[in-house]
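#onboarding

Welcome to the new folks! Below is a worked example of what a typical request in this channel looks like: someone posts a single protein sequence, and someone else replies with the predicted structure as tokens. Don't worry about understanding the tokens yet, we'll cover that in week two.

Example request:
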Amino acid sequence: MVIARYCAYRFSHFFSCSLYGIDLFEETMKNFGKKIQRFLASEDGPTAVEYAVMLALIVIVCLASITAVGNNANARFIQIRDALAGAAP
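Example response:
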């Protein structure tokens, strides 16, 4: 019965049968919880998010400025076209 309890987790390659009284499922979940706690406590995650937000803002500013320059250039070319059309005989 004890072996059956430990072998019940053998449904995948991640969990294997334990004959020494070590519950691998519980250990795996504890390790997973510790990794989550370390990730949340570290400063790397928020720093990466801050860089992503800054990059997104830079891209938005670049797109807006390129659009403005394009619209101004288009308006100038239209003025030149109209001036040349009026001067043509």
